[in-house]
Amino acid sequence: xxxxxxxxxxxxxxxxxxxxxxxxxxxxxxxxxxxxxxxxxxxxxxxxxxxxxxxxxxxxxxxxxxxxxxxxxxxxxxxxxxxxxxxxxxxxxxxxxxxxxxxxxxxxxxxxxxxxxxxxxxxxxxxxxxxxxxxxxxxxxxxxxxxxxxxxxxxxxxxxxxxxxxxxxxxxxxxxxxxxxxxxxxxxxxxxxxxxxxxxxxxxxxxxxxxxxxxxxxxxxxxxxxxxxxxxxxxxxxxxxxxxxxxxxxxxxxxxxxxxxxxxxxxxxxxxxxxxxxxxxxxxxxxxxxxxxxxxxxxxxxxxxxxxxxxxxxxxxxxxxxxxxxxxxxxxxxxxxxxxxxxxxxxxxxxxxxxxxxxxxxxxxxxxxxxxxxxxxxxxxxxxxxxxxxxxxxxxxxxxxxxxxxxxxxxxxxxxxxxxxxxxxxxxxxxxxxxxxxx
Length: 439
Hints:
globular; Aspartate Aminotransferase, domain 1; 13 strands; alpha/beta; 12% strand; seven-stranded mixed β-sheet; Aspartate Aminotransferase, domain 2
């Protein structure tokens, strides 16, 4: 009873001396990056917010990122509070700060906080959605050969649990010259009356290909117009490599579920993620992990009944004890991005990626796998060097103080991922070192 009572009290006002609201952190961030600075292209001011060592050129934010100063400060403040009096700090702050995190994510994605579930990563979000789907044995999940292990494994497990079939198609025969129309056409021709779920990745971490999601979801909506609610094709998207780059809100994409980690391109606290969904879509799921922030769950449990009503995002938010100081610092990550401006972040990232792609195309013995078009790419630049394995290229780049990565696929490629932490001069340096490797 004491535990349940304390959890119920977690939404109460803070005791005297506890941490201020998120608006205070926006003021603190303004001390580091003034609004006047952000009105102009002062990217060194943005770079100064990160504690990255200058000994390397960092081209791996797509994997895990450094925290900007406002996020670091928030984590440290929460950590001090928990270290001083962990029980009191958690129970006086947890529910309120999780709701602030949901609200901040919802604002960023153009939905209410009620449409956001909090997770630990993209992987957790993808697994929660596919494992929670109400599927039958005569339905199928359709995905692509080009999707990542996390999607493939999650839908495989969902199929074993529900009896639903899983099927893969190839998005293309050759990525060279790929067009939006070809992608949409191939997906639409693969959908059958049995297709209940379309499992996609927005930006592929192998090649950097960005799917034309709006064109796909518009085409799916035309199919859904003739289907009953229980047979609608649900479009579920691993969106992590567009999240924190593209200037968009959820309605721009038109998908039912959008899963992403916050510790990559968003530069958010490590071990945080979100699932965004429409109110219509949440009803198609069943939770997997008990929620600590959904009051209806606690009330039903205490009365010995099942929770009533449809599944909600709060009910899909996993409970348990976790790295609370990171979870609670999520609002500062969204404020940091929006303080810079989503459109400016998108423009800068695409500009740096285009500089990298154009430079690589001009180097002999290099095969570039990422489309040049901004409509079909984001921040990932994927390539190979003739006569060298991707691992060997990454090793040689590290010897030259450049951090790159290898795509963990059956057919691996070298990946460079320029972002707002980088400069055009760094891109030039990377290209110069690659020329030396090739020669």
